Amino acid sequence: DQQVKQNSPSLSVQEGRISILNCDYTNSMFDYFLWYKKYPAEGPTFLISISSIKDKNEDGRFTVFLNKSAKHLSLHIVPSQPGDSAVYFCAASDTGNQFYFGTGTSLTVIP
Amino acid sequence: KAGVTQTPRYLIKTRGQQVTLSCSPISGHRSVSWYQQTPGQGLQFLFEYFSETQRNKGNFPGRFSGRQFSNSRSEMNVSTLELGDSALYLCASSLGWGEQFFGPGTRLTVL
């Protein structure tokens, strides 16, 4: 049973525009969330995190929003750049040491 | 600071054989987690070790096992390999809570 879902397998965005990647979870006990970016033949790279005491966290071009009542989080990338083209994974945890990952969204930024 | 390293990077085995994968965490990190990534399945959690003890375990058969040494290095073993075990195996290290940092993975092919 997939506790973390990324329902969009792929997304294409024009360079300079906003990319919005979505993630839904089913376990209301999850209170810590991570986003990772993964290039082919490499391990995932940590991007940004958010805990349930916040509803927004920013780091440069990356912002994560958390809607606890909807059990939904999203990653915004503004402006999108061709180098952002990768697979993005969200992950959630209720313990902080065991994470459940989504199936990923492949982002393509078109120059 | 050196990142997470995994050896070997690529492995080809035949059904019925066993395999051992190795992971060296970031210096100072005491937690090592293992994941299996297959197409369309995202990252499936195998187990997590903290200070030489298995702290969390995912839903994988007993053919999958691991251990952690006093220097925090970890090994994962898969016995009696099956075709379905072909995957990218990723390890990630952390201080024990929070963001996990991934290695490049070991690509296992079972023929």
What does this molecule look like?
The complex is a heterodimer of chains A (111) and B (111). Chain A has 111 residues and is mainly β. Chain A has no helices and eleven strands. With 111 residues, chain B is mainly beta. In chain B, strands 2, 4, 5, 6, 9, 10 and 11 form a seven-stranded mixed sheet that branches. In chain B, strands 1-3-8-7 form a four-stranded antiparallel sheet, with no helix packed on it. In chain B, strand 7 (64-68) and strand 8 form a beta hairpin. The N and C termini of chain B lie far apart (37 Å). At the A-B interface, strand 4, strand 5 and strand 10 of A face strand 4, strand 5, strand 9 and strand 10 of B.
Layout of helices and strands:
The complex is a heterodimer of chains A (111) and B (111).
Chain A: E1 4-5, E2 10-14, E3 19-25, E4 32-38, E5 45-51, E6 56-59, E7 62-67, E8 72-77, E9 86-93, E10 100-101, E11 105-110
Chain B: E1 5-7, E2 10-13, E3 19-24, E4 31-38, E5 42-50, E6 53-57, E7 64-68, E8 74-78, E9 87-94, E10 101-102, E11 106-110
Parallel strand pairs in B: 2-11
Antiparallel strand pairs in B: 1-3, 3-8, 4-5, 4-9, 5-6, 7-8, 9-10, 9-11
